[in-house]
Structure formats: structure tokens, C-alpha cells
């Protein structure tokens, strides 16, 4: 039976780790703050030299904020998982009554908390320093964030499954995933600028629908509610597939004994 108490234990463990290590706390807000400052000054510079009267702050800085939030969600899941990888703690964790669904739920809750910290820092900097008004996006900002959050969770769970199957040495495969997706998601440009084969991939990615609608709002064009619904439906599919993938890999690791000999050299 699913136990919220056992799930919260994963989150509590992560809290204790951060409490005893400032090096784990600093990345929660340092990198997003640097991104906001860098892109914020870029948008101010573009506003000054373009002479077109177009405001780059809501289009570029808003896109950076949403994309950074997505990255923090992915990393929130994977980093919590990597804590068990780095400490080789899987046998200790799964020697308890903890189920895979409770463990994954703990990873998700940890991501909720860590990504929320980054989001608050980004919102404060974007609004107070660079004057980004989120009232421009209206109530649609909530489903935008939700779609990005769910897709980030799905990618994080999928990445955890890859590392569990291939071993800690495959960790380097996980960190670049958001960067590999970003050209297809159209974070900074319309999907119409992409070649046809890239657009086919874009239509399978929920973030692409978010950023297309974001640009429509900035340019005062009609948004597409059906596109956001389709993005949400894709999120549900990816979440189910990622959960199935992780569960299958976990059962394989238990059945073959991989979880007991889990080390940087484990490749089978």
C-alpha cells in the first residue's frame, strides 16, 4: 500500500543533506540568478539598439525563465536520485518497505521543492530588476508552468532509469538532455524557422506548444487552447512511459543482482 510517510522520508533525507552542505544549497538559486542577470542585460541591450520599439524582455527573458524552470525540474529529480548513486545507497533504501512508486514520488516531491526555490528567485529578479510583468501572460502562465513541470518530471524519471540500467558512468548522458531538446522546443524562435524534419520532432515535445503560445501572447496574436491541451496529453503519455521504463529497469536490476553490485564499472 502506498505510504505518504515513506515518500516524505525521501524528501526529508534530501533536506538533511542540504542542511549539512551549503554546496548543495547554492546551486538551487545561483545558476538561475546568473542566467536571469545575463539574459536580462542582453534584452535591455537589444531594446536599446534595435530601434524597432519591440520589447525583448517578455519574449526573451520570459522564455529563459520558463526554460530554466524546466531544467530545474529535470535536475531536481535526477540530483535526488544521484545522491543514492554517489553514496551507493540503493541496498539500504530498498531493504526497507519502500516501493518503487513511493521512491519515485519522493524524487518528484524533492523536485517540486527545489524547482520552486529557483522559480521564486527568477521571478524576483525578472520583475524587480528588469521589469518583466507576468500579468502580460495572464492566467495562461499556470498551464505553461504545469506542462513544463510534468515534462521535466517525465524526463527526470527517464534519466534515472538510464543511469540505473547503465551505471553511474552514464551520468554524463543525463545532464545534456535539456540542451539537446531546446533546438526542437523553439525556446527563442518560432517553429516555422526549423526544417520540416525538426518540426516533426517538435510536434511531439510539450514545451514547443508552450513557447509558441508564449510568443503569440507577446505579439498579441490569438493563442491556441487546443495546442496546450495537446501538450498536456503528451505530458501524460511521457509520464506513463517514463514510469513504466523506470519500474521495468528497477525490476531488471533486482532480478539480475545489478542493484547489489552497483558501481561505476557496472555496465550490464
Describe this structure in words.
This protein has helices at residues 4-19, 22-50, 56-87, 90-94, 100-128, 141-166, 177-185, 196-202, 206-218, 225-256. The two termini are 31 Å apart. The chain has 10 helices and no strands. The protein is an all-alpha fold and 268 residues long. It is globular. It has one domain (4-256). The longest helix is centred in the N-terminal third of the chain and has 32 residues, at 56-87. The model is unreliable at 263-268 (pLDDT under 50). Helix 1 (4-19) crosses helix 5 and helix 9 (206-218) packs antiparallel against helix 10.
Key descriptive features of the protein:
disordered C terminus, mainly alpha, 268 residues, 0% strand
Number of beta-strand segments: 0
Measured on Cα atoms, how large is the radius of gyration? 20 Å
Strand percent estimate: under 5%
What is the CA–CA distance across the termini? Answer: 31 Å
Uncertain segments of ≥5 residues (pLDDT<50)?
Answer: 263-268
Q: Main sheet?
A: none
Give the fraction of residues assigned to helices. Answer: over 70%
Q: How many domains, in number, for the residues?
A: 1
The secondary structure category is mainly alpha
Give the ordered list of helices and strands: HHHHHHHHHH
Average pLDDT, all residues: 87
Overall, the morphology is globular
**Given the structure, what is the number of helices?**
10
Amino acid at each position: 500500500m502506498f505510504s505518504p510517510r515513506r515518500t516524505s522520508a525521501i524528501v526529508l533525507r534530501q533536506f538533511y543533506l542540504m542542511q549539512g552542505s551549503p554546496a548543495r544549497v547554492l546551486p538551487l538559486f545561483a545558476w538561475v540568478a546568473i542566467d536571469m542577470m545575463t539574459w536580462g542585460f542582453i534584452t535591455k541591450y537589444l531594446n536599446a539598439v534595435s530601434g524597432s520599439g519591440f520589447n525583448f524582455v517578455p519574449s526573451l527573458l520570459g522564455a529563459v525563465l520558463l526554460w530554466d524552470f524546466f531544467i530545474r525540474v529535470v535536475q531536481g529529480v535526477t540530483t535526488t536520485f544521484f545522491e543514492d548513486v554517489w553514496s551507493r545507497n540503493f541496498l539500504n533504501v530498498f531493504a526497507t518497505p519502500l516501493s518503487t512508486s513511493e521512491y519515485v514520488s519522493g524524487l518528484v516531491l524533492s523536485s517540486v521543492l527545489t524547482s520552486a526555490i529557483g522559480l521564486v528567485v527568477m521571478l524576483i529578479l525578472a520583475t524587480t530588476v528588469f521589469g518583466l510583468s507576468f500579468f502580460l501572460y495572464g492566467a495562461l502562465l499556470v498551464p505553461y508552468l504545469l506542462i513544463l513541470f510534468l515534462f521535466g518530471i517525465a524526463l527526470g524519471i527517464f534519466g534515472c532509469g538510464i543511469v540505473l540500467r547503465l551505471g553511474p558512468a552514464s551520468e554524463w548522458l543525463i545532464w545534456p538532455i535539456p540542451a539537446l531538446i531546446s533546438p526542437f522546443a523553439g525556446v527563442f524562435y518560432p517553429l516555422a524557422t526549423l526544417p520540416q524534419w525538426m518540426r516533426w520532432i517538435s510536434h511531439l515535445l510539450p514545451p514547443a506548444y508552450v513557447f509558441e503560445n508564449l510568443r503569440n501572447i507577446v505579439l498579441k496574436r490569438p493563442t491556441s487552447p487546443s495546442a496546450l491541451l495537446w501538450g498536456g496529453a503528451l505530458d501524460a503519455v511521457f509520464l506513463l512511459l517514463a514510469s513504466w521504463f523506470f519500474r521495468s529497469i528497477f525490476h531488471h536490476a533486482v532480478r539480475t543482482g545489478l542493484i547489489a553490485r552497483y558501481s561505476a564499472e557496472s555496465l550490464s
